[in-house]
Design goal:
mainly alpha, Histone, subunit A
């Protein structure tokens, strides 16, 4: 089954979902590029992978684990909080970063 090319409306809908404002030239350009990407994905979906094991790590490295050790730097947490501009409930208070 051949995948249809993306239309101008498809690209505009994707841009709206991604909260992007595109010029007419960008819509035309991205329409071709996104269609080419989708056709490539379609090719990949048709590849026979039966009998292959899933690969989630290819370089042979393994996680190196160590025991966590507590280090006493000679300061109590409440003493360190005296150095910050604003605290709340024994934590550093900062401005909200996500709207």
């Amino acid at each position: 089954m051949q995948m249809a090319d993306l239309t101008r409306d498809d690209v505009l809908k994707l841009a709206q979902l991604a909260r992007l404002q595109l010029t007419d030239q960008e819509v035309q350009e991205f329409s071709g590029e996104l269609t080419a990407i989708l056709h490539y994905v379609e090719q990949l979906q048709n590849v026979d992978v039966s009998g292959l094991k899933p690969t989630n790590q290819v370089n042979g490295l393994i996680n190196v684990m160590r025991e966590d050790t507590e280090v006493d730097y000679g300061y109590a947490p409440h003493e360190l909080l005296n150095n910050v501009p604003k605290t709340q409930d024994n934590q550093i208070e900062v401005k909200r970063m996500v709207g």
